[in-house]
Each structure stands twice: as structure tokens, then as C-alpha cells.
Specification:
globular; mainly alpha; 114 residues
């Protein structure tokens, strides 16, 4: 089952790359911005509960989809870029085994214990 889930996430990551290709940004923007959502881990400096909340908000695929769709509706390429990057990053993390976090520990995720 884990392999099936990871393959699904990989396909979503590839879809995000395709969506990025439809935007009018140079290709180097994609790798340059791809790890930016991990800034949300700064909440772990306070405690695991705050870290988990911030991490989960930023790494929820729904946020990327909503921001991207708002950008599409407004014709705003920057919002579409932000949505694609958030979605791509979350998919990439899931492929690597990083799920959404529980409040007790960074290593306790929706995909199991790391």
C-alpha cells in the first residue's frame, strides 16, 4: 500500500511540474522555490504542537490548490506559482515519507513514525 501511495504522490508532483510549465516563469524558479514551504518548521523552535500546526497548514495540499485557483480566477501568475509550489512541495514530501505531523513529535506523522 505504501508503494501505491508514493506512486500517487509522484504523479501529483509530476502534475505540478506540468502546471508550472504552463506559467510564464523561468524554469530555475521551480527548484529555487521548492523547499521554501519548509520555513514553516520554524514553529518547532517554540514546541512540537506549534510546529505541527504551522507545518500542517503550509503542507496541506488544499492550501496550494485554493491559492492556485484564486490566482487562476484573478489571472495572477504569482498566486498560481505559489499554489503550484505549495502543492508540489507537499507531494514531494509525501513521496519522501514525510506526512502531516502530530503534535507530540516531528517524527510522528500521518504516514507513520519516521
Amino acid at each position: 500500500m505504501k508503494t501505491l501511495l508514493k506512486s500517487e504522490e509522484l504523479i501529483q508532483f509530476l502534475a505540478a511540474i506540468y502546471l508550472f510549465s504552463r506559467l510564464s516563469f523561468a524554469w530555475w524558479w521551480f527548484p529555487a522555490l521548492l523547499l521554501l514551504p519548509d520555513i514553516s518548521m520554524i514553529g518547532y523552535l517554540i514546541n512540537p504542537a506549534v510546529g505541527a500546526v504551522l507545518y500542517n497548514i503550509v503542507h496541506h495540499k488544499g492550501l496550494g490548490i485554493v491559492i492556485g485557483l484564486i490566482g487562476l480566477a484573478l489571472g495572477n501568475q504569482y498566486l498560481m506559482l505559489a499554489g503550484v509550489i505549495l502543492f508540489a512541495h507537499s507531494s514531494m514530501d509525501r513521496v519522501a515519507g514525510y506526512g502531516l505531523k502530530y503534535a507530540d513529535s516531528f517524527k510522528h506523522t500521518s504516514l507513520g513514525t519516521m
